[in-house]
Amino acid sequence: MFVKRKVLIMIKQFCLILLSGLLLNAGPVQAKGPLLKTGNWRAVLQRPDGQQIIFNFETQFVKGKQLLYVLNADERLLVDSIQRNGDSVWIQMPFFASGFAAKINAKGDLEGVYNKSYGERRQIIPFYAAYGSKERYTAAAKPLHDITGRWSANFGLKDSPESKAVGEFQQAADGKITGTFLTPTGDYRYLEGVVSADSLKLSAFDGGHAILFTAKIADDSTLGSAMIYSGLSGHEEWQAKRDANAQLPDEYTFTKLREGESKLNFRFPSTSGEMVSVNDERYKNKVVIIQVLGSWCPNCMDETAFLSEYYKHNHARGVEIIGLAYERSEDFKASRQALAPFRKRFDVQYPFLVTGVKVSDEQRTEKTLPQLESLKAFPTSIILDKKGNVRKIHSGFNGPGTGKHYDEFKKEFEALIDSLLKEA
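The structure assignment produced for this chain is given below.
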């Protein structure tokens, strides 16, 4: 009860920080030096239930500009929108409509809130960050087990394809651990944490994911008493068994064409305002990749980075890409604004189309791509041959956080496109 009351007080205090900044129209101070102390930070998102989602970031001052890098295992996610007025700081994450509003205290540390928009609702979580620390979690005791390897996991303890996952971990002698979970709809990107005695903690933060995995390691082959904590209040049980041959359900069967269908037929406005149809002249006799995405989706961020580079190197060979966006709003201007950071950060040269249908709409498939049975996974890639026929549907995306699986995906993807380009 004490933790919950303290968290509520913190939320009220820092909502006032946000509000006061807006009311005063406080602009950034044009300081000659860094807005924040440069170096390493340990950040905490404090949930009302007492659980802490911990991550790290590093601040630099480069060519007169303050930069921040969110650190998760091998990932360094650039954040370049930082503003300060007096002892108040605003840090805007590059994607996912999220950011931080904080005060700099007497020690130079940060205390404030993390706020994230989910369209019609907003989530606010107390946040603080201590300067000068590289540690995420400290191993209080020597690890009793080494969980390096491949694990068959079940999220939510349900018997369904969507609940299945494969965990892959690398554990060091001091207990530090990195890894990820692969699921039928994508991966959990870069996870980092520690094994202390018989306890596991893994966390990640990228502005989209704010997540903590905990578990008790019963023995070298069993993870139990396990929970997933996400955002302010999300929580779910999970369990895992060591299995070197663990496999996911076939991702290609997640989304299927309806019986009797072979082609797609759609027309939506692009973020630049022009109407674009898959039947336009520019797509005839081309291999076309339809990228189903949302600006709220971390795996879509990884896929956009990959596809944008692929397009630049292969467009001249006869490859086209169309992005179909399902946002949290039906408003065109709001959706276009949400997609703008993706286009800018990854220099996307192919069109993003705004479907105007919310991702939460249960009729989204029927309203936009009625030739499909059901559109469940974001992202999903639909690959068309030169005649416009659907040749492959790939649900989910194994990004760079999955290591060899990302390399395998790229190899298979490139081989498929090459084979389609060679067809008459």
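Interim note for the steering committee: The radius of gyration is 23 Å. Helices lie at 2-23, 298-314, 332-345, 364-368, 404-422.
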